[in-house]
Every structure is written in structure tokens, then in C-alpha cells.
């Protein structure tokens, strides 16, 4: 007897965040969406102001100038790049190209929740390969491939765990996934590893008939509100992806901002460096206080007190005590954990002080 395909309408466990009114009237700081806490970079701010009189106009449907800029910045042929309304649109477009009802989409056990949403929309069966210490296990993924496997998604670094698969293991996965199965390597948080790692992943994808690399401006570039993503794709796949993508899904303002961000890399890199420094500082303090922190290569941390009820109490305390919104991780196997992104140093100090009060009171 085979498992019935999962429907998009079936219940799905999602990550919960507190949305009620802050009881003390404190300003609410949302650390639940993995956003950067900064405003636009100087060149992005100029580009946004310049675009305001032209908001009546559509953006270029194929994002030609942005693709050229991305190609130059990443050493890629612009004709192998497609842009979308955030990388989430592109993930969905990829799933609609390659999976149908009854097909299998393979992911790692604690993979990005949007991968499962993509499978549900197609009424495909989501298959989750076991992980090793909250990190993708390449052998488990390869061992889970069947004749029904039509697509493999891998977020690396991963969300929500933050863990990173070494490049040698990514290469082994690329080399052993059958060429008829598209392999999507989602590098949404790649900038928080380093440029060399991202470049190496793109190099692995070159000249492969089945490897797609997805990227975003929502994280390191701080443009989550404008929704700009892109993918490095084998040329033969592009017609099908464009056919399934919205014609004007990246608006004119978003295109201009993304192009400007690529010209402001000194500021982007400075913010990434500060985020990494804050991540390590916060992780060190929380570890000293007895919390468990997964090793993160992103702009967020996944944390547990070791007890699901106590972690839930900490989530509520952070909101009621300091106005901080963090994310519960409710997926099976992650019930003991919570996740939060790095804020400004001042916001992170607020979080550390509130955690200290919780532990002292408890």
C-alpha cells in the first residue's frame, strides 16, 4: 500500500509567533522573520527616491538590467539567470514545472517550510530524509530517492536550523543525484557564510543539466519588503520557468533597488559582518547561561532551554517583558526550540537582558 499524496489543503504545522498587544505598551521588535534591522543602504535610498515619480510604469518583464548586474557581480552568464518575486516565487515555479500529483519531492528532515508548501500546492508527496545532528545527511537524501522522486530541494545554510552542509558534501550530492532529477540548492543565507562558498556552489552548478541555485535580496541585502529573488538555472529549463512565472512579478521599484544594492556592496558587507559578530556574541552569552544553540551560519539562531514547556515560557516572557517577538518551531522534532534573528546590538542586548531575567526568576 502506498502513501496517499499530500494535499495543499491538508493541515500543515507552521511556526507560531505572538501577535497580540504588548501588555506593557512597549514597542514591539519583531525578530521572527529573519530580516535585517537596517534601513536602505545609501545608494538604495537614492534609487527608491528616484523611482517614486515613475511608479505608474511596469518594470522590465525579464529584469534585463538586473540580470546583467547579477551576472557581473557573480561571474555568471545573465542568460542563465531568472528573477522572481522573492526566491519563494521561483521555488514555487520550479515545483510547478517538475512535480505533479503523486510525485515525490525530497527534502531534508528539517528543511525550509516553503519546500513543503510547494509540494502541497502540487498535491505531491513530501519525503523527508533523516538528518544527523540537525544537519543535512547526504547519504540519507541519496538513499531516499525513488522512481517517483521528481525534485530535490536543499536549503544550505538551512532555515530554521541555521546549520551548514560542507562544500565537499554539497559536491557529493551534486555528483550523485541522477541527472533527470532537478536539484535546487537554496542559498538564501549564503552571504552569511562567505562569498567564496557561494561562488563555489555556483561553480558546481555550471554545466550541470539538473542543478539550480536560488538566491535572494531579502536577507543580506535587507530588501525583504521589496521581494526580489533570482536563480542560476540550466538554460534548457528557462523557457518552462518563464512560462510559469508572473510576467511582471518583480516590480520596477524592486528592480531599481536591487541594482543599487549591488553597487553598495561595501555597506552590505559591513552589515553582514556586524550581523555575524552579533550572532557569535549572542550565542556565546546564551551558551554560558546554559541554553543550547545550534551552530548557525545565517543571521538567526535556533535556541532551546532543553524543555519544550520552558522554551515556550521563554517565548512568552520575551514578548511580555521586553516586547520581543521570536518564532516557535513547531515542526515534528523541533518542538523544544525557538528561533530569532539578529537585531541591532541594542536590540540584542535587550534580548540578553530579558533572557537573564527569565532564568533568574525561574
Automatic annotation (TrEMBL):
<keyword id="KW-0663">Pyridoxal phosphate</keyword>
<dbReference type="InterPro" id="IPR050106">
    <property type="entry name" value="HistidinolP_aminotransfase"/>
</dbReference>
<dbReference type="GO" id="GO:0030170">
    <property type="term" value="F:pyridoxal phosphate binding"/>
</dbReference>
<dbReference type="InterPro" id="IPR015421">
    <property type="entry name" value="PyrdxlP-dep_Trfase_major"/>
</dbReference>
<protein>
    <submittedName>
        <fullName>Aminotransferase class I/II-fold pyridoxal phosphate-dependent enzyme</fullName>
    </submittedName>
</protein>
<dbReference type="GO" id="GO:0008483">
    <property type="term" value="F:transaminase activity"/>
</dbReference>
<keyword id="KW-0032">Aminotransferase</keyword>
<keyword id="KW-0808">Transferase</keyword>
<dbReference type="InterPro" id="IPR015422">
    <property type="entry name" value="PyrdxlP-dep_Trfase_small"/>
</dbReference>
<comment type="pathway">
    <text>Amino-acid biosynthesis.</text>
</comment>
<dbReference type="InterPro" id="IPR001917">
    <property type="entry name" value="Aminotrans_II_pyridoxalP_BS"/>
</dbReference>
<comment type="similarity">
    <text>Belongs to the class-II pyridoxal-phosphate-dependent aminotransferase family. Histidinol-phosphate aminotransferase subfamily.</text>
</comment>
<dbReference type="Pfam" id="PF00155">
    <property type="entry name" value="Aminotran_1_2"/>
</dbReference>
<dbReference type="InterPro" id="IPR015424">
    <property type="entry name" value="PyrdxlP-dep_Trfase"/>
</dbReference>
<feature type="domain" description="Aminotransferase class I/classII large">
    <location>
        <begin position="28"/>
        <end position="353"/>
    </location>
</feature>
<dbReference type="InterPro" id="IPR004839">
    <property type="entry name" value="Aminotransferase_I/II_large"/>
</dbReference>
Amino acid at each position: 500500500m502506498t502513501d496517499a499524496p499530500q494535499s495543499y489543503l491538508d493541515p500543515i504545522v507552521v511556526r507560531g509567533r505572538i501577535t497580540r498587544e504588548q501588555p506593557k505598551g512597549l514597542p514591539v521588535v519583531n525578530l521572527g522573520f529573519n530580516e535585517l534591522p537596517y534601513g536602505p543602504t545609501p545608494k538604495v535610498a537614492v534609487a527608491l527616491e528616484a523611482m517614486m515619480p515613475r511608479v505608474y510604469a511596469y518594470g522590465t518583464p525579464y529584469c534585463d538590467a538586473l540580470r546583467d548586474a547579477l551576472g557581473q557581480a557573480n561571474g555568471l552568464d545573465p542568460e542563465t539567470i531568472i528573477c522572481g518575486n522573492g526566491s519563494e516565487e521561483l521555488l514555487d515555479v520550479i515545483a510547478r514545472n517538475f512535480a505533479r500529483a503523486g510525485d515525490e519531492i525530497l527534502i531534508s528532515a528539517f528543511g525550509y517550510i516553503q519546500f513543503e508548501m510547494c509540494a502541497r500546492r502540487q498535491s505531491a508527496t513530501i519525503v523527508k530524509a533523516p538528518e544527523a545532528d540537525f544537519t543535512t545527511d547526504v547519504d540519507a537524501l541519496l538513499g531516499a530517492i525513488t522512481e517517483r522522486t521528481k525534485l530535490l530541494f536543499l536549503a544550505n545554510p538551512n532555515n530554521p536550523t541555521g546549520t551548514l552542509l560542507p562544500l565537499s558534501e554539497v559536491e557529493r550530492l551534486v555528483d550523485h543525484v541522477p541527472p533527470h532529477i532537478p536539484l535546487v540548492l537554496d542559498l538564501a543565507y549564503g552571504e552569511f557564510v562567505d562569498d567564496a562558498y557561494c561562488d563555489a556552489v555556483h561553480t558546481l552548478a555550471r554545466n550541470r543539466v539538473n542543478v539550480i541555485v536560488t538566491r535572494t535580496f531579502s536577507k543580506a541585502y535587507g530588501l525583504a519588503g521589496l521581494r526580489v529573488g533570482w536563480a542560476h538555472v540550466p538554460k534548457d529549463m528557462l523557457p518552462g520557468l518563464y512560462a510559469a512565472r508572473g510576467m511582471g512579478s518583480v516590480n520596477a521599484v524592486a528592480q531599481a533597488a536591487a541594482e543599487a544594492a549591488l553597487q553598495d556592496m561595501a555597506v552590505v558587507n559591513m552589515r553582514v559582518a556586524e550581523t555575524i559578530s552579533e550572532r557569535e556574541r549572542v550565542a556565546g552569552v546564551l551558551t554560558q547561561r546554559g541554553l543550547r544553540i545550534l551552530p548557525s551560519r545565517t543571521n538567526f539562531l535556533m535556541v532551546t532551554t532543553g524543555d519544550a514547556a520552558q522554551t515556550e515560557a521563554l517565548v512568552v516572557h520575551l514578548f511580555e517583558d521586553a516586547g520581543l517577538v521570536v518564532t516557535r518551531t513547531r515542526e515534528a522534532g523541533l518542538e523544544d526550540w525557538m528561533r530569532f534573528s539578529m537585531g541591532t546590538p541594542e536590540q540584542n542586548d535587550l534580548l540578553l537582558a530579558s533572557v537573564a531575567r527569565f532564568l533568574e526568576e525561574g
